[in-house]
Amino acid sequence: MRPDKLVARIAIYAVLGFFALIFLAPLYVVLVTSLKTLPELRVGTMLALPQGLNFDAWGKAWSSACTGAACNGLQPFFMNSVYIVIPSVIISSMIGSINGYALAQWRFPGSEIIFTGLLFGFFIPFQAILLPAAQFLGMLKLANTIPGLIIIQTVYGIAFCTMLFRNYYVAMPLELVKAARVDGAGFFRIFWRIFLPISLPIFTVCVIWQFTHIWNDFLFGVVFSGPESRPITVGLNNLVNTSEGVKEYNVDTAAALITALPTLIVYIIGGRYFIRGLTAGAVKG
Amino acid sequence: MTGLSIRNVHKSYGNVPVLKGINIDVAEGEFLILVGSSGCGKSTLLNMIAGLETITQGEIAIGGRVVNDLPPKSRDIAMVFQSYALYPSMTVRENISFGLEIRKVAPEERKRIVEAVAESLQISHLLDRKPRQLSGGQRQRVAMGRALARDPTLFLFDEPLSNLDAQLRIEMRSEIKMMHKRTGKTVCYVTHDQVEAMTLGDRIAVMKDGVVQQLGRPQEIYDAPANMYVAGFIGAPPMNFIPGTLEGEGSGLVMSIDTGAERRRLALPFRPADVKARPGQKVVLGLRPERITAAGASTSDPLKVRVDMTEPTGPDTLIYATLNGKRTLCRVQPFAAPKAGEAIALDFDLSRALLFDPESGARLDGGLAG
Amino acid sequence: MTGLSIRNVHKSYGNVPVLKGINIDVAEGEFLILVGSSGCGKSTLLNMIAGLETITQGEIAIGGRVVNDLPPKSRDIAMVFQSYALYPSMTVRENISFGLEIRKVAPEERKRIVEAVAESLQISHLLDRKPRQLSGGQRQRVAMGRALARDPTLFLFDEPLSNLDAQLRIEMRSEIKMMHKRTGKTVCYVTHDQVEAMTLGDRIAVMKDGVVQQLGRPQEIYDAPANMYVAGFIGAPPMNFIPGTLEGEGSGLVMSIDTGAERRRLALPFRPADVKARPGQKVVLGLRPERITAAGASTSDPLKVRVDMTEPTGPDTLIYATLNGKRTLCRVQPFAAPKAGEAIALDFDLSRALLFDPESGARLDGGLAG
Amino acid sequence: EDVEVLHYYTSGGESRAVNVLKEDLEKIGHTWVDSAIAGGGGANAMTVLKTRVISGNPPKAVQMRGPAIQDWASQDALVPLDAVSGDWDNLLPPAIAEVLKYDGHYYGVVNWVHRVNWMYINKPMLDEVGGTVPTTWDEFFAVADKMKAAGHTAIAHGGTPYHDAVYFEGIVQSMGVDFYRKAILEGDAEALNSPTMVQVFDILRKSTEYFDDATQGRPWNLAAAMVIEGQAGFLFMGDWAKGEFSAAGKVPGVDYICAVRPGNEGIFTFIADGFVFFKQNGGEATEGQLELASLIASPDFQLRGAQFKGAIPALNTVPVDSFDDCSKKAAADLQSTAASGGLVPSQNQGTTEAVLGAIRDVVTNFINSDQDSASAAADLAAAVQAAK
Amino acid sequence: MADTIPADAGLRKGLARPSRASVWADKWIPLVVLSPSVVISLIFVYGFLAATAVLSFTNSTLMPRYVGAGFQRYIDLFSNSVWWTSVANLFWFSVPFIVLSLGLGLLLAILMDQRIRAEGALRAIYLYPLALSQIVAGTAWQWLFNPEYGIQNTVRALGFTSFEFNWLNDSRMAMACVVIAAVWQCTGFVAALFLAGLRGVDEEVIKAGMVDGASMPVIYRRIVLPAMWPVFFSVLLLLTHQAIKTFDLVVAMTAGGPGTSTWLPSYFMYNFSFERGRMGVGAASAVMILVMVVAILIPMMYLEKRAQKNAS
Ligand SMILES: Nc1ncnc2c1ncn2[C@@H]1O[C@H](COP(=O)(O)OP(=O)(O)OP(=O)(O)O)[C@@H](O)[C@H]1O
Ligand SMILES: Nc1ncnc2c1ncn2[C@@H]1O[C@H](COP(=O)(O)OP(=O)(O)OP(=O)(O)O)[C@@H](O)[C@H]1O
Ligand SMILES: [Mg+2]
Ligand SMILES: [Mg+2]
């Protein structure tokens, strides 16, 4: 390699490495803090490695830390989140995909207007619709229940899912639908047999995106849940704000990590497909 | 019984008219070619026949039955697309049998049909592959197989070969031709490749801007094009158009030609009475490259022409010359090829020459060869 | 002085060898064609000449100077790409002048050059458009203009016409040819279109699997291909390969032909001494379609052949027949065209026939025509 | 019966006090359904409450204080507690009873009474610099200077609008209870934009010089921890902070001193924490709601809850002998100020959320900028007017 | 194909004259399929926004109260200095946030496009912050910025005892902290989008640039980046949307402080609607935020569409 090229390569890696360290720093700090004991926390700096792998704080955050009057840790909240996230992700992705399919492949007069109209839902600040939404859920007798939360999360996810899928399907040739119609297939069968099977990349993007957003949501979670249906972000918030004199940073950080773990895992496992899916459809360049 | 009948069909997108009254009758078993430059409305017409676009005005009948209001699946047609439109997630087998499955053909029957079709297209060994694992030519065959398996009364093809490279195109062309001969089905085939148009069809409809310019047998269209557009469109290399002024000489008509090497008046083989132009009028003389050949012993009165460039294509050599200021192409035998800049004696076979109006493009000669 | 010299060049990607020792010398001002089927390494070689790929082994010299270690910008070359690779955000003018700007040519000078180039390519009116506002042919011209403006010692073209439709291709082909004649620059031109190869180049290098199969003048390669690959690759429609068994008859060689209509032994024009095969051996007879014509009055001994299919292309008609079980193509005059199923008397001009080994593809005749 | 209780008692002694109540309730056969919503000083909980009410599904019991009780009662959302309020009129100081009543009926039940105008001093540090408990701001700054000179942080402060306002309130009260009433509780523009108020801001500005530089976002309990651990000298916070001290095993008078803030003698600013009970389906009070209310009002809970919370019982019949010295003083002061007119609600209790927010905006902005006192006073007057 | 496949009655089964319903269905099914979403959107988005808009013209305080108040709530809003502070803060938040995310994301994307090793790992590292909720991210950054146990303390422990890093307590710098956290969270995503865009650029164009004699930086600046307008617009749209909606991050990091120096309009809306019991003003601010969204995003969506159309 020519020397100037070598210098350029070294510079590239140096810059990338530097930013990688910066990006990792918060995670590192949170992780090592969660593995320390309280006395350890007081003496060392936040960058210092823990003296040993001490998962006590994790155990406490999971099952015995107090969140308000209850001292069951995050455990019950975790399951609530799971019950909320799974159906809403599935339903919103399914609706988004069939909407996107209808909008991209069955264009009809007004379809662009409908698309823009739906898309607007993605841009509204959700604080603005809390009260009417609560009233509506109350009318449906679903206020403060897990089904109610599923509805809310699904409904406000549709806009984004529709956009993702539409942009993906728009890149597919219109001839596919034509060929299938000539073959005798109808709207749903074409979707089910032809478009759904090629939608894996964009489904991955959609599912990852929806999963993280719904899992991480606090606003809807705190407002529309009842005592039996609070998601984990609310649990985390209560736990971090519940303290006895000394703040147990190790427990708080462990709780934060437990909260973040599912999404982190989803990203680590699905990240590659996420990028691939984005390249395949969501971005046009 | 007609296989397909298109009666006064119009199509507009919004206010933009795309088809302006198309009338074509296709006999049962006939192979009709729709040809024309890009954007002239070929695909639109085909989609309307298939039921994929609504008909703004007029009537389309397939096998005697008016289908204006029928959805595609009830029209008993099969269609092959330029992009093949193979279902990407299905294997070749599934692609071919999908239409049968929807029509609730029994599984064993389906299997039998798929295998028979695959056999006839020599793609039996590909049946379990996915489309992305196929080459262009193989995909084309699968697309064809999908249409064949359905055994419809009418085949529609929308530029099915244009994504293939030249060599494969030639091969598939002859396969489509054989397939048609074997099945005897009515076919409506869109292309904008004139060679395909010439070689495949029983009849050709040449379209331009939503209007059929000429409808006729290939040789008819080749020899007696209705106007300059058709003449220039059909044939490769295309017809030469030599501008000039019509002159009377004796009882005949002549035209002055300046070849760069000499200036000469060529006698035209038209009877003045048949020609819709008078001496003194500007005209365009149409002459196909293969009618201008190297002068041989039998040539009575060769024309000396200065050669701009030569192109040996192998079987023939093309000679470029400038006649009356217009680039003109001549097709000569390889061994007769001169060097650029030299003059060569050429034989102008005017017996099949045509005369056009330079403004409107209309034929001016009486249709001698038609 | 040589314009370009490629000496024993190898290229591997990882462990996969792609070029396996290429040796080509191109004289200054010569137009060299690199031709070969897809994936044979043409683009790789061109990229190595341009400095866009490293050279695994061997040496490349441009204008006598070894360039192995020079970056592309120091090689004084210009390149035209298959996708044209116009800079999408720049106007045509900027596209053409970009290379000059980088080389710090003064603005007025740049303007002068751009305008001269645009003039010569007839794109002056397009100078302020963006590439996406251009048609395929116009884009191609701009790509060419970009290369011309730089006035390099060596032009590289990588399938510059393959994205154009047939008609435009013919037109651009002749323009490239004229451009070369005008500038007299060395050109290295990649294509896999045999017509382009035949018509454009001073010499053709036919490649296969990273090896040059034959390097020679177009007509030489057309008439005397080194092997069956070259013979089949160059020429459209391609050469017919009729399998058979070599037989001795008297002092000459013959081969049995079964035409479907009759069975006959054809006398081959080779001297047995020249032929690297003995009677009884299986061989392939190579015969170009234009050598099989309709028998005329002068034909001494016509062969009766059953016609499978005919294709009138306009200027000629192609006849498909089956000889010794192999599909064979014959090019006859349109008026001689028979119907499918009929028998026709054909004139086999064996004077330019070739003999190949069916296994290795090697030429077996003595190179009579070469 | 399931009794869902929405509250934001999530820290220290609070949650233990709540647990007492929970046990009591479950002893009599009801189920305590805990709805703790932490954060934002109850803001999150109030957001939840609003959406719950609007969706027609309010929790049965809600922790609440201040004019919000009247607001909700005026919306006809609360159940009156007539069935259990009996002789509360006699047991509660009138100033406190007033905040629980609407239209002559009790709608809230008080858990305990907090005194806000406390300050806590780290005794070893005070002794180290040889200071005495300051009773005026001048004395205070003198001691603070000594602490600063000795290398200590004089004031442990939590940089939240909430703590800022608590600190500010003490200074306003040091200008006299009438001024406090006029300016803060009544929002009188003249008082708000008076030279006295400018003086208040001057003292506030001077105080900030004794903060450390990591105050931003620090919760008050961490500020308390600084005094507990000897990192800082003074903490200005209500008596609930005492829970943090006792939880850390600190003894008043030995490890720390609790004292009335400078210039606050004779004034008792209270927060009467309580619960209200929301009508279910617009109907009558449920048995569980009433029983919870009477549990809260029972001497037993008043005693134990107040102890855990560091507050004092609201009912004057509950003996405070078992309380620590600080609480005993507070209990005594409660009675005396109730008589003298020095018993006033803290701003948290006595102003609407809108006014409270406006005050906090100005105060917190002042602390975090270098605004001058006069313009801060003018801003305060304008902001409070706008929010009324 | 009569010779290979015998005509079969079963084949024609599907060809019976279609019922009126099936013809109708063919035409209207896309609309029917979309209609639930349209209805949902009409209720949950437009309906609820309309309800909020109605509230902004009422006397609502603690709870909705439908007594008309004309434009009084808007007058209240516009005369409230905190609102204007929030709007100004939004500018000081979103401009640096968008510029930095774009710039850094682009830089990382370009560097990752240089055929580097470990690209997958680096991408994962840059992308993971997106997986964290803003609450968790904000809290983590709050710890890092906290002078007592964060960066300042750490650097001091390394021996630089006079090191000062206390932006979170400085009302002029607190917003910078929020910006840093937001940039940290979004940059990886931006880089991924740009990388996808870069990968879509025709490789031959880059080769053409090299042959034309341009260096890599020039090729990127003059050729590649200008070709990426559509991606650029998409990213800008997403970031602007993100900036306007940022809420949790502020709550977790600064709760608006110090003072009101990190209040944003979304925080203002929440605070006034729910915490302060000034629902009318909160609703008015919500309407204003929507106006901003429409005023900023609609033109951008239009431009993006045009850019994409032009690119194709
Ligand atoms: N959905 C549509 N809306 C508006 N105009 C359309 C639509 N589809 C096609 N057109 C226009 O109708 C005309 C005919 O289009 P059509 O696709 O039939 O042309 P074509 O002859 O098939 O051309 P090509 O050879 O390029 O395929 C074109 O000018 C096209 O722009
Ligand atoms: N970067 C690469 N890494 C590995 N293999 C490569 C790479 N680039 C090209 N190849 C392989 O090298 C061979 C030659 O490629 P090249 O592009 O030169 O072919 P070509 O003759 O130009 O073909 P075409 O006519 O399709 O353009 C192909 O088999 C290709 O798969
Ligand atoms: Mg078309
Ligand atoms: Mg190539």
Automatic annotation (TrEMBL), chain A:
Main location: membrane
Annotated InterPro entries: MetI-like, MetI-like_sf
Bilayer disposition of the protein: Multi-pass membrane protein
CDD domains registered for this protein in UniProt: TM_PBP2
A biological process term (GO) from this entry: transmembrane transport
Record localization: Cell membrane
Keywords: Membrane, Transmembrane, Transmembrane helix, Transport
Domain of life assignment: Bacteria
Pfam family, one: BPD_transp_1
ABC transmembrane type-1 domain location: 78-270
PROSITE patterns the record matches: ABC_TM1 (PS50928)
Transmembrane segments: 12-31, 82-101, 113-134, 146-169, 190-211, 254-275
Cellular component, GO annotation: plasma membrane
PANTHER family per record: ABC TRANSPORTER PERMEASE PROTEIN (PTHR43879), GLUCOSE IMPORT SYSTEM PERMEASE PROTEIN GLCU (PTHR43879:SF1)
Family listed: Belongs to the binding-protein-dependent transport system permease family.
The name this protein goes by in its record: Carbohydrate ABC transporter membrane protein 2, CUT1 family
Species annotation: Devosia enhydra
TrEMBL record, chains B, C:
Lineage of the species this protein comes from: Bacteria, Pseudomonadati, Pseudomonadota, Alphaproteobacteria, Hyphomicrobiales
Classification via InterPro entries: AAA+_ATPase, ABC_transporter-like_ATP-bd, ABC_transporter-like_CS, ABC_transpr_MalK-like, ABC_transpr_MalK/UgpC-like, Mo/tungstate-bd_C_term_dom, NA-bd_OB-fold, OB_MalK-like
Main location as per UniProt: membrane
Keywords assigned: ATP-binding, Nucleotide-binding, Transport
Cellular compartments annotated: Cell inner membrane
Organism field: Devosia enhydra
Superkingdom of source: Bacteria
Protein name: Carbohydrate ABC transporter ATP-binding protein, CUT1 family
A GO term from the CC aspect: ATP-binding cassette (ABC) transporter complex, substrate-binding subunit-containing
Similarity comment text for this entry: Belongs to the ABC transporter superfamily.
Topology in the lipid bilayer: Peripheral membrane protein
Family annotation (NCBIfam families): PRK11650.1
GO biological process, one term: carbohydrate transport
Domain ABC transporter positions: 4-234
GO molecular function list: ABC-type transporter activity; ATP binding; ATP hydrolysis activity
TrEMBL record, chain E:
Entry similarity comment: Belongs to the binding-protein-dependent transport system permease family.
Gene3D superfamilies reported for this sequence: MetI-like
Keywords: Cell membrane, Membrane, Transmembrane, Transmembrane helix, Transport
Any Gene Ontology CC annotation: plasma membrane
Membrane topology: Multi-pass membrane protein
ABC transmembrane type-1 domain span: 87-302
InterPro entries referenced in this protein's UniProt entry, alphabetically: ABC_transporter_permease (IPR051393), MetI-like (IPR000515), MetI-like_sf (IPR035906)
Chief location bin: membrane
Annotated SUPFAM superfamilies: MetI-like (SSF161098)
Pfam families named in the record: BPD_transp_1 (PF00528)
Name of the protein: Carbohydrate ABC transporter membrane protein 1, CUT1 family
Transmembrane segments: 28-57, 90-112, 124-144, 173-198, 219-239, 279-303
Species this chain originates from: Devosia enhydra
